Amino acid sequence: xxxxxxxxxxxxxxxxxxxxxxxGLTLTFGIMDLVNLAHGSLYMMGAYIAWTLVGWTDSFVWGxxxxxxxxxxxxxxxxxxxxxxxxxxxxxxxxxxxxxxxxFFNELVRMLWGPAGKSIAVxxxxxxxxxxxxxxxxxxxxxxxxxxxxxVALLLAWLVARTRIGMLIRAGASNRRMIGALGVNIExxxxxxFGLGAAFAGLAxxxxxxxxSVKIGMGDDILIxxxxxxxxGGIGSIKGAFVAAMVxxxxxxxxxxxxxxxxxxxxxxxxxxxxxxxxxxxxVYVVMAGVLVWRPTGLFGQRT
Amino acid sequence: MIAALRTPRGLVTALLLVALAxxxxxxxxxxxxxxxxxxTRIVIWGIAAVSLNMILGYGGLVSFGHAVFFGxxxxxxxxxxxxxxxxxxxxxxxxxxxxxxxxxxxxxxxLRTRGLYFIMITLAFAQLVYYIGGGLEAYGADDGLNISRxxxxxxxxxxxxxxxxxxxxxxxxxxxxxxxxxxxxxxGLVIRGAKSNELRMQALGFPVFRYRLAAFTLSGxxxxxxxxxxxxxxxxxxxxxxxWVKSGDLIVIVVLGGMGTLFGPLYGTIAFFVLxxxxxxxxxxxxxxxxxxxxxxxxxxxxxxxLYARGGIDSLLGKRDG
Lengths: 304, 322
Hints:
The complex is a heterodimer of chains A (304) and B (322). By secondary structure, chain A is mainly alpha-helical. Chain A is built from eleven helices and two strands, in the order ααααββααααααα. Chain A has one domain. Chain A has a two-stranded antiparallel sheet with strand order 1-2. In chain A, α1 runs antiparallel to α10 and α2 (39-57) packs across α9 (218-233). Chain A is globular. Chain B is mainly α and 322 residues long. Chain B has a single domain (3-316), classed as ABC transporter involved in vitamin B12 uptake, BtuC (Orthogonal Bundle), CATH 1.10.3470. Helices cover 71% and strands 1% of the residues of chain B. Chain B contains 13 helices and two strands. Chain B has a two-stranded antiparallel sheet with strand order 1-2. Classes of the chains: A mainly alpha (304), B mainly alpha (322). Chains A and B meet through α4, α9 and α11 of A and α5, α10 and α12 of B.
């Protein structure tokens, strides 16, 4: 029972990280109509920048706080130099150009930080466990990810639903040209949204860094998962991204945790432990295919 | 035929094809075996690029999972070889059938969607097979599987590099020929018409979905053929051959060469492999050690191509007459 609870929490934690990535992705697609494959590169850059800044400031918290504006700025640069030229293009151009950006960023990281992976230590004040229920310890750092992730999700929900900028974002998602015609500085709005998405991706990257390793291409696999999430949730829908991220997080973690035992009942032990991660990853894609067959525009989506 | 040679496009294409035809003789004469293996890969990737061009270029369907057919064709050969079925007469038809079936299944599910959803669902199905490949403990999991080449006793020995190359080239030419027949047939015209206006084609009474499904399935079959050849070229299969980066590379090749043109995939494949081989030494000329980082130039190059060179190499060869 405790084991199940821990795995569900791990699923929530993974889901929230994925949501941070997926939120930026779904906003850029919903508002700017941009398929941004390079979003995973921003996640990777977040982790590497955090590694450098944590080293400079000798403090995880300061490093993390400085990483956010740094990735925001990086996002603004990417938007002004490349991305804004792609908004009016068709999806194929966007796929091609942002695929090029992935190659560029992977190579840039290899030049600047070298080919070997880096690791960021879990900050000492979080390097312990908390009791989430009496007698059930849980790593404090993972718990902190859940808290920060949930807070950012709430902040984003508030931002989109209650503020003027959120109103513009929603208006932009339903009709870009119209809000431009109404006198909103739409270019600035696009740059802002892109930067915000980059900062979210950077936050996900830096929070994931201490529990995974910081390595080249770390953003690529997770980017595909983030795309799966926004496709399941319905492109452009923040709510959909959140629901789908939670579902995918649970499938991935719970699948990894429980499938090996299940498979061992009819497979050899080593075959089961190598097949289980594959099956839980496959399951994610099966769910996506199922959702799309049932609802070709995702759970909460209207657009195609 | 002679008239076609007068245009720059015809001349360049003819020269490229002649160069490909005599490549084994040249590499033998100058003792550059490595070049022959690049040539073999160019021709095999060319088959895959032509097959992707049928749906991406002519049909406007951005399939982001085409490398999966490398994997299916390759693994079908590898797994059968692993269990002692080494005859190509058995291996190849079964592998082709597997790729065709998978293409039909994926097509039937994914062609219901549009736009980004289509891009992502084709990618997802490719990832699904990729992870299954990585989970096959009995067949080497992520490390892949060393295989023995398919046997066609008395007909051709695939271990002989030059004859294998010529076989690949012949199959490439056959694929090109098929594609030219496809593009100008009624079937191909429906696919091309649906690219520019799907609604109009439907209003004209064409069952666009079924046409597209047929094209997608055919394209997958040729992709599977490329996979069979790729497995035989390296005598090795692994999940890496169907990673999503390979699917991206295939899209790059098709766009680079010129989408929806017959010879575009040929130009694109050659340009892609030449860039891959030539950029590192070129960068090393500027500064020692930079060659290792050639993708830092290649990446922005793709951005520029996407932004400013939509017609690809084909459009550099003058306006098309048709």
